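Running this now, will post back.
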Amino acid sequence: MKEKHSLLAWLMWLIAATFYALDYFQHTAPSVLIEPIANSLNISLVTVGNIMSIYFPIYAIAQLPAGYLLDKFGIKYPLAIACLVVSLGLYMMIMPSQHMLIIGRILIAVGSSFAFIGALKTASLWLPQSIFPIAVGMINTIGVIGGMLGQALLNYMIIDYDWKRATIYISIFGIIIAALILIFLRSPNTCQKQFAVKFNKLTILKDKNIWLLAIYAGIMVGTVVNAFSELYDVIFLENSFHISSEKAAIISSMIFCGIAVGGPLHGIIANYFKQKRTWMLTGCAMTIILFAMIVFSAKIDFHVSLMFILYFLTGFFVSSMLLSFSIARCCYSKQVHATIFALINTVIGLCGFIFQFLLGESIEFISKHSDHHYDQHVFFMSFWILLIPLLFSLFMCYKTRRI
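Update: finished.
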């Protein structure tokens, strides 16, 4: 009977995680869609890029309401409706209007805000506490794989058909996921009464430990992943090692491969040693060392093949921040887990926006006040500044409660 329950629990988790795979896919899709959309609407690439960027602040703002709704109404209906909203947003993007593109992007951001925390909430309801860290890592791995494979599939579909038809197919896939959620996903019977229990959400906002975990995780992702890897690492590699953009992009992808591999392994390692906080400190320290080696590779004569290893290991150790969700889970009962996860994810999203902006301003300032123009010297002077908040994140991690 226990084995059947275990299989049912993992099935519930997988259904919710599939929605996150769709979310991560649409998160990476703009890099493929930006040019065909610009050509279709007869607007500039920058204009399309600015419209696509609306996603990030709305996604961050919508996290806390999404967490509250998941805690109040359970996982089935909020996740099903959210997935339908994402599908509607994707469909609206094909309309021959810039305003419809904006509305579609806003709908996608609102619907997507439920995906990751919904998958975490499902795991916290159905899976044992000892398995939860591994499940968190696997959710992240599913998302990364969904993004990487989905991006290649979308590019193929655009070539084979056109971008509008490809987007419609993705929208239909979202509707199918929503139907699966509506038909099969549910909360465990033992948890049904918990949603009716009143809980003062201000207690969470006053918890110092939750904020320490959120800031630690936000800095780890915001600096290395959002600011560095998602924006400037390819051009950094091109200028520092004088390699093609194709080879630089392959090296860049190694960070995400490391994240995909590291997510579940950190959960297994932390469970084995029964020291989540200690392993988070180890992962943060290794991230700082490895990222420093990447930054100083602009000044040191590293062979380019070494960068494949450095990027992979950096991604591997930065994904140790996922353990912050496992520690946060231990602080409160299941009835408020989605709100806690949403708070941490909100800070992560805001940190990504802040560090992307600060790094961009830093690069502009240094390039204007030196004889160098977007070369390895400018990137070196800008990237090493990211090591300061990373050291601060190590301190934040150290100050968290021992669990």
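Residues 193-197 have pLDDT under 50 and may be disordered. More later if anyone needs it.
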